[in-house]
C-alpha cells in the first residue's frame, strides 16, 4: 500500500514504473494513455488431486476449477491495485504459473502489468473502464494496443477459459494392432478436440459477460504441469474488445501510387 501511495498521480515527487519497452511506452503515450505504475497480483495455490478413469476421456472438474480460481485471484488483486491508483486500465498484462519448491502440488499464479490513465474520456464522454466498473486489462503489446485504439476499438478485459482433461490410455490390444501402421488414434483426437472446445467456449462466455464484440490476440496453450502425460490443461486467453462508437467502421487504408515520368 505504501508503494501504491507513492505512485498516486499528482503526488509530489511521484514517478511511474512500467515493464513496457521504450517503444511500447511511446506508443501507449501516443494512444493517449499515461503509465502510472506497475501493478501485480499473486496467489500461491495448492492444487488438489483428482483421479481420472484409466480408459475414459473426461474433464477433471476439480482441477479445472482450481486452475481457474487461482488465476482469478491473481488477476483480481492486480485489478485492485490499479483501481487504488485511479487507473483506467492495465496494458501489457502477463499471466504466468510458476512451480514452487514448497510441494509438488503448489504453484504461484502471477499477474503483472502497467496501470494507465487516459488523457481524455472515451468518445461521447464514456468511461474507459468496462461494464463492471473495473479498469480494463489487456495482454496486447504496446504496438498492438496503439493499433487497436487508432482503429476505433477499446479493450474491455482479458478473458480466459481453462479445462483440465484426462486423456484415456490405449488398451493393450489397440497398441499392438497399430504397430507399424499409419493410423489416427481417434480417442486421442476426440479428447483433445473436446478439451480445447471447453476452454474456448468458457473464454467466449466471459467475453459475452463484458458485452464484447469479439476477442483479439487469442492464445490457446496446453500445459502438463506436474500431472503426468495423460492429464493436460488447455488454457485459452485473449483481450475482449468493443468499438468506441456504435456506428464505427474501420477505415480502409488509401493506396498511393507513384508514377515516374
Structure description:
The protein is built from six helices and eight strands; from the N terminus they run ααββαβββαβααββ. With 261 residues, it is of the alpha+beta class. The longest helix has 24 residues, at 61-84. Mean pLDDT is 82; it is low at 172-176. It holds the Pfam family YbjQ_1.
What keywords describe this structure?
UPF0145_YbjQ-like, 8 strands, Translation Initiation Factor IF3, 6 helices, 261 residues, UPF0145_dom_sf, Heavy metal-binding domain-containing protein
Task: Give a nutshell description of this structure.
With 261 residues, this protein is of the alpha+beta class.
Q: What's the shape?
A: globular
> pLDDT below 50 for ≥5 consecutive residues: which ranges?
172-176
Which strand order spans the largest sheet, edge to edge or round the barrel? Answer: 1-4-3-5
Q: Total helix count?
A: 6
The percent of residues in helical segments reads 25-40%
InterPro entries: UPF0145_dom_sf, UPF0145_YbjQ-like
Family: Belongs to the UPF0145 family.
Protein name: Heavy metal-binding domain-containing protein
Pfam family, one: YbjQ_1
Compile the SSE list and pairings:
Elements: H1 2-6, H2 22-30, E1 33-46, E2 58-59, H3 61-84, E3 89-99, E4 106-118, E5 136-137, H4 142-150, E6 153-166, H5 172-177, H6 186-209, E7 214-223, E8 231-243
Parallel strand pairs: 3-5
Antiparallel strand pairs: 1-4, 2-6, 3-4, 6-8, 7-8
Helix pairs in contact: 2-4
Amino acid at each position: 500500500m505504501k508503494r501504491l501511495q507513492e505512485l498516486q498521480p499528482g503526488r509530489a515527487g511521484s514517478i511511474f514504473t512500467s515493464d513496457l519497452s521504450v517503444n511500447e511506452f511511446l506508443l501507449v503515450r501516443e494512444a493517449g494513455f499515461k503509465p502510472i505504475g506497475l501493478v501485480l497480483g499473486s496467489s500461491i495455490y495448492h492444487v488438489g488431486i483428482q483421479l481420472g478413469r484409466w480408459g475414459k476421456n473426461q474433464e477433471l472438474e476439480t482441477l479445472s476449477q482450481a486452475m481457474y480460481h487461482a488465476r482469478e485471484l491473481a488477476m483480481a488483486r492486480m485489478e485492485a491495485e490499479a483501481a487504488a491508483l485511479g487507473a483506467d486500465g492495465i496494458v501489457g498484462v502477463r499471466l504466468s504459473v510458476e512451480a514452487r519448491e514448497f510441494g509438488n502440488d503448489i504453484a504461484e499464479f502471477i499477474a503483472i502489468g502497467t496501470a494507465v490513465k487516459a488523457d481524455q474520456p472515451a468518445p461521447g464522454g464514456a468511461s474507459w473502464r468496462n461494464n463492471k466498473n473495473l479498469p480494463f486489462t489487456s495482454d496486447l503489446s504496446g504496438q498492438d494496443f496503439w493499433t487497436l485504439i487508432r482503429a476505433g476499438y477499446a479493450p474491455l478485459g482479458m478473458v480466459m477459459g481453462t479445462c483440465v482433461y484426462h486423456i484415456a490410455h490405449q488398451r493393450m490390444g489397440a497398441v499392438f494392432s497399430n504397430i507399424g501402421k499409419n493410423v489416427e488414434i481417434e480417442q486421442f483426437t476426440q479428447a483433445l478436440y473436446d478439451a480445447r472446445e471447453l476452454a474456448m467456449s468458457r473464454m467466449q462466455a466471459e467475453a459475452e459477460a463484458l458485452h464484447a464484440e469479439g476477442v483479439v490476440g487469442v492464445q490457446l496453450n496446453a500445459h502438463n504441469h506436474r500431472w503426468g502425460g495423460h492429464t493436460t490443461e488447455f488454457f485459452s486467453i485473449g483481450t475482449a474488445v468493443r468499438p468506441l462508437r456504435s456506428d464505427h467502421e474501420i477505415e480502409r487504408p488509401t493506396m498511393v501510387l507513384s508514377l515516374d515520368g
